Amino acid sequence: MHATESKIRNAATAVLQRAADEIGGVILGKGDQIRLALTCLVARGHLLIEDLPGVGKTTLAHAIARVMGLDFQRIQFTSDLLPADVLGAAIYDRERGLFEFHQGPIFSHFILADEVNRATPKTQSALLEAMEEYQVTVEGETRDLPQPFFVIATQNPMHQIGTYPLPESQLDRFLMRLHLGFPDKSAERELLQGEDRRDMIEHLKPVLDGVNLMSIQKQAAELYVADALLDYVQAVLEFTRKSPMFEFGLSPRGGLALLSSARALALIDGKEFVLPEHVKQVLPAVVNHRLVKTSDELDTKNLTAADFISDSVPVP
Questions:
Q1: Could you tell me if 232 and 276 are in contact, meaning their C-beta atoms sit under 8 angstroms apart?
Q2: Rounded to whole angstroms, how far apart are CA atoms 289 and 259?
Q3: For helices 31-42 and 2-24, angle between their N-to-C axes, nearest 10 degrees
Q4: How far is CA 279 from CA 39, 81, 139, 275, 315, in A?
Q5: DSSP secondary structure string, 147-175?
Q6: Of all helices (H) and strands (E), which one includes residue 144?
Q7: Rounded Cα–Cα distance for residues 47 and 286 (Å)
Q8: pLDDT tens by residue, the chain, 316 residues
Q9: Strand pairing of 135-138 and 141-144?
Q10: What is d(CA 42, CA 267) in angstroms, rounded to the nearest whole number?
């Protein structure tokens, strides 16, 4: 039985590595970010990518959807976008004499919420139920979303004109937040000399489908976690709640996010169990958008919340 489980796990690791390689051929020099994006997907979480326009946020989302073989819908968030434009609406059919529900683009396996912070808070909140409950309620009726369901939202920096800050409740729905940044010199040279990224995405071949992805997600959720590692996660949670550096600590949901992300990363690495190093590797993407700093002290030391936690909480 153990040999069979090991074979299945190795197959999952191999296909995820192949997916990372395929995406890495389009998004150059961003191996760590691609690895974390796949970790987020395997952990059944949603991903927020925050960065300047033009660094590849949308291209990354397209590449992931293509490689994973998932139905894809892109929603361009603008200031005049309405919740009904996302969820759908009941429209009166004169011939039949009744209201008929027309599904919005949210009814897809993979959603790209492009420039999500350019929409009003009311429209941003239309994503909340979908991201947390995998369902939407319209006209008093609840409708299930297709499975698997995954949201990648891109966000422009807050100082740019025409942006609305995401509320804490919305930020907490994202399992991870990533920054892509500019490519290094060699990657940018290859990008400038190479084929158009949009054409390259069209030639990407799926390495998975929805059924296989859900099977891999289940494997990740069942990966063994030792009591010592749970002690470490709880120590991290307790530290954030007691530290004067943060307005409030990580919630139980934040702890679950750390654990599910570490499990997914361990599976990608081909491990039979989760190591403290997996927790530390996912820590920045999982906690930095969840913690509000009480002062500029960490900024003056060029430390993120995750840096401060890693330096302060000993690994068992």
A1: yes
A2: 17
A3: 130
A4: 12, 38, 42, 7, 10
A5: SS-EEEEEE--TTSTT--PPPHHHHTT-S
A6: strand 141-144
A7: 10
A8: 466 777 888 889 999 999 999 999 888 889 999 999 999 999 999 999 988 777 788 888 889 999 998 888 999 988 889 989 999 888 877 887 787 888 999 999 999 998 888 888 888 888 877 888 899 888 778 889 999 999 999 887 655 555 677 777 778 889 999 988 888 898 888 888 877 777 888 888 899 998 999 999 999 999 999 999 999 999 999 999 999 999 889 999 999 999 999 999 999 999 989 999 999 999 999 999 999 888 888 888 888 999 999 999 998 7
A9: antiparallel
A10: 9
Q: Is the dihedral of CA 220, 223, 227, 232 positive or negative?
A: negative
In the block, tokens 């807050």 appear at: 158
Distances (CA, A) of 273 to 18, 39, 212, 314: 21, 15, 21, 20
Q: Per-residue DSSP letters for 258-295?
A: HHHHHHHHHHHTT-SB--HHHHHHHHHHHHTTT--BSS
Tokens of 10: 């190795």
Question: Are the C-beta atoms of residues 148 and 70 closer than 8 Å to each other?
Answer: yes
Structural domains of the chain sorted by starting position, each given as residue range(s) with its CATH number in brackets: 12-214 (3.40.50.300), 223-312 (1.10.8.80)
What distance in Å separates the CA atoms of residue 144 and residue 133, rounded to the nearest whole number? 9
Residue 24 and residue 63: Cα distance in Å, rounded?
9
Helix (H, G, I), strand (E, B) or coil at 91: strand
Query: Tokens 């927790």 belong to which residue?
Result: 279
pTM: 0.90
Q: Nearest CA to 108 among 89, 86, 123?
A: 86
- Cβ(127)–Cβ(86) below 8 Å: yes
- CA proximity to 165, closest of 36, 301, 292: 292
